[in-house]
Amino acid sequence: MGPVRCPHGTGTGPVPGAASSCDLREHTTAMATTTSSRTAGSTPTPAKPRTPRRAGFSQRLGRWDLKLSPYLYISPFFILFLVTGLFPLFYTAWVSFHDWDTVMGQGEFVGLENFQYVLTSADFWKAVRNTFSIFLLSSIPQVIIALVIAAMLDQNIRAKTFWRMGVLLPYIVTPVAVALIFSNLFADQSGIINQWLGALGFDPVRWHAEVIPSHLAIATMVNFRWTGYTTLILLAAMQAVSRELYEAAVIDGAGRARQFFSITVPQIRPTMIFVVITSTIGGLQIFDEPRLFDQAGNGGSDGQWQTLTMYLYRLGWSQSDFGRASAVAWLLFVIIVIIGLINLAVTRRIATSGGKR
Amino acid sequence: MVAAGVATLALALTACGSDSDDSAEGGSGDSGGKVTLTISTFNEFGYDDGLLDEYMKQNPNITVKHTKADTSQAAGDALRNALGAGSGGSDVAAIEGDQMPEFLQYADKFEDISDPSLDGRWQDWKTAQATDAKGRLIGYGTDIGPEGICYRSDLLKEAGLPTDRESVAKWMGSTWDDYFKAGEEYTKKTGKPFYDSAGTIRLGMENQMQNAFEKDDGTIIATENPEVKDMYDQLLAESAKGLSAGLSQWTQDWNESFKTGGFATTLCPGWMLGVVQGNAPDVKTWDITNSFPGGGGNWGGSFLTVPSYGKHVKEAKALANWLTAPEQQIEAFKSKGTFPSQIEALKDPAITEATNPYFNDAPIGQILTDRANAVTVKPFKGPHYQAINDFLADALGRVDIDKVDDADTSWNKFVTDVNGLK
Amino acid sequence: MTAPALVPTAPTPESLRPKKVRTAVRRPGWITYGLLAAVLVGSVFPLYWSVLVGSWDSSVLTRDPMPWFPGGNFWFNASRVLDSIPFWKATGNSLLVSTVTASSTVIFSTLAGYSFAKLRFRGKGPLLIFVIATLAVPTQLGVVPLYLVMAKLGWTGSMLAVIVPALVTAFGVFWMTQYIGSALPDELIEAARVDGASMIRTFWHVGLPAARPAASMLFLFTFVQVWTNFFWPFIILGPQNPTLPVALQSLQAAYFVDYSLVLAGATLATIPLFILFLGAGRQLVSGIMAGAVKG
User: Fold this and answer.
1) Which residues of A touch B413 (CB under 8 A)?
2) Rounded to an integer, what distance in angstroms lies between the CA atom of residue A268 and that of residue A19?
3) ipTM summary value
């Protein structure tokens, strides 16, 4: 996702709080957008060159210091990004046009053959389906649940920090541990979840055999780890909502629920959508949880929960075919960029409509 | 070695990458002829209970550092990475038998270890597994995986069927047809599954085919080979339906079933005995037959290789040679039960007279020796063996375990998968 | 899933904070507390389960009824974990990788953030936009070439392969830019410059102290993220020299799965960050809420 323009400013704030800051600026002057409008825009910073006191070498040194230091300070990021970000991206394309064995290295130039293989492979399209399905199942419910929890935390409760830390706790558990724990809970026969379902009179769910149940189980792992995190972001947005709006609503005789749906939800809607959007880049690359959902790590006998990154891994590291793996990497890259552009369009629209309220 | 079974875990499980210990450099700063060797194995090769210490005592100028990966897949991935990178791997690297065909493609990147002094050390088929088309031998054989059938005598008893080793062997017969027929009888009497999954039984059948998936020249025939299709059909036939417990190997449910009696029989290469015992330590009724449907069969077994990127290949060869000599392999068997591939070792009383109390005091040495001698077919496994094997496992799993496809649909997917291979 | 980006907004200066007039000054009723307690149970239960199963032997899962209190087998299981995987080595590696990358990310991001927020130079606007745009680049997808590069360098299996690509992040730069921009008055810099301080001195004495609160949060986030990271370390590190998540996953991949062993491992692996959380959880919370409200 790219920079997001606030409706009445030049702020670049691609992330939740900043989004809400766009349309809530009147109320929360302290949000960060003002800063970025200064930095990203062309407004000159007030720092003026100092008056020279001594001429000669030190002055020249001072000028170089003034001119070069900023570049020096930002250079680590750019150098590292060039080497570990940009170069690999283009090199991936190069590899994808070749027959490339993991051990033997570069082979012949094969043109688009690898792409053709991948695009006609049923596994690829299943992986696309799974990736999106798991993503949606893990982001939409997550935002809804987080919304409810945030609303409760937004009340005048006792021991605020305790509750906040409580919901955040799962965030510090590594996804590998989360996956190990949940794949035990979700075992088809001996898992506790199926035992509970049985006790409630339901048939056991075949978590490791059917498509949607496996996605649900994996999404549960993701949600377990991230819901608390999302809750805190939404909570921050809620707390930024002007209390005057609520006061006015109280005077109008609106109840709690009414206030929630007519004020809170619309006010933080941009943040909610931002939460979903910002999780797309990571979410579409999901690997850890589905990889460890069973012992084999291939996403099921029919690719029921094989995601795109798993497919990439399988091609590149298990089938020793870097060419095809690179083709998948590029396709996934394109998918994410397209989604990113859609995001950009959506967020602009939200920002605009939010500001006009 | 033990992890032969893990090959069926399908593709890679653990990190690629290689041993990064500075010792991997082979101790470039060595002085006075001191050499540090690294050896990487997986699961249990039985080298830790004194064998390596013994070697260092005999060769004071050598220090050996041993690293163990959890699975053969992990070890294979690490080795593949080191070969690709041309550095960073171990001086001696263990390879699991079913992975050997893939690594034979890269035989040039390994030391040729053939030597007149090694002639006759191993069974021919074991040596053949590690020899490439040009006659380069790249692996010192460690162990093999001759198979019997493990069964729960209490479950057979409940069904009013024979329970002692000899009668069970007779009842199960000598062909796969007999085995399935026995299964039908058991299932009809008890309504319970006979074996864990079609995929497991398939490994036994497949390992008896000369050219299951590939011709000797490497041409893929997996989808046209009538043997493979017949096997597939037999495993998924209507009559075999109730026989399978539909439990995927190595899953939690599969593990639990060794305790709960989810199935009555399974295939048991030597290294599987430890798995059975580990999964059901308190069950007293597991036993093993001295028989195997369709003749003998081998599942798994490993090699030690010396990759050429090492800085001390001469010393590494000496170490691997010593470790795979009959005397040492007998020690390894005593330590971890890995059944030797060395002809000499198989004649040793320490092997032939060994018994296993967990399996009702089965004369395990005799049984496995007989099972090893019964192996007549030396299956050809080419570079695509592993990949096709995994595809077939998935194909059977879709029908037998996950029940998401019918047999024909799943077969068609298998054909598509195989055709996608280069 | 990687961390959803958060907004680095500066903590609100007290005077600018909107007056919080609570609509309901009264405390919420027991229903709210009940629901919150249920949420808490949800976030604790899987961890409790891990401790529970990890403290019995593997037969506990088939026991009927299952015990709901921990058994006495945890240390035995833990010792088996230590035998099965190079746990201490992995913990040491994770500690090394997380500490180094978190420190370097903080240093480089603070420098870059200071530069973007407070210094004047040609091309600043486009360069900052470039930084923000890279937030959207899924760099994880460059694994194949990155792997080839690491192989060339002979770094496969070495911590360098994990540390170097994570030395600084776009997120960190953006976060510090936002924060320093709002938290550091230009007048302070000007004053230092007028006094004749060099650029780096000015940064050291003025920029750095002002950035400290955001820097410590950035440290925490980076630390947690790198500690929990799996995909790249899994690819590039060997089983002999893993980070904690990589070592942990091999417990499940082993040839037969003993869940009391696996979950004892999961418990052990969670302990280090749990301790960190007890010490710095409050800061994490306020970091995520990033100044919109005081924790």
Assistant:
1) 122, 302
2) 9
3) 0.87
